[in-house]
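[User] Once you have settled down, look closely at the record that follows, and write a paragraph about the fold.
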Amino acid sequence: MSLLYSTERPEFLERVASLAGRTAYRVPEGARGTKQDQLPDAHAIAAALGFARRGHLDIGPDVAFCWALQSDCYKERVIERVVGALGAASHSTSEELALAVAAAWDSMIWSRPTKRPARIPQKAWDVALLCAIGVLQNSAWDALAAAERRYTRAA
């Protein structure tokens, strides 16, 4: 069986591209897409993710936008919200959590590993880092699923 006809779940960026009007078909078709207008891809992605926002505290669309476009434009806002959310359930200080969430951001958005600060114990760092990565990835995937449902319904 050829890998061109895989039944695997499409990757995050492939699903985001379909929101922007690009085909998700995995074989090059001479740069043809399904897009009918001249709206730039970044604007189409932002509009689609705007439909997914569940209130002013929702960071999912911001994380998904930055992950898809490899941008740090919402980094400070997202780190502040995740630190606030994890701070109530953690024994770590907010400074340690902020370092772990920033490291999780760099790992997820830029595929850049960050070294553990020497003053933070290994176990505490691992727990905070894994929780932060889980929150970031789940919020992005949830926002993408909501955007797919709401954007296609509105169009």
Summary: Residues 9-154 form one domain.
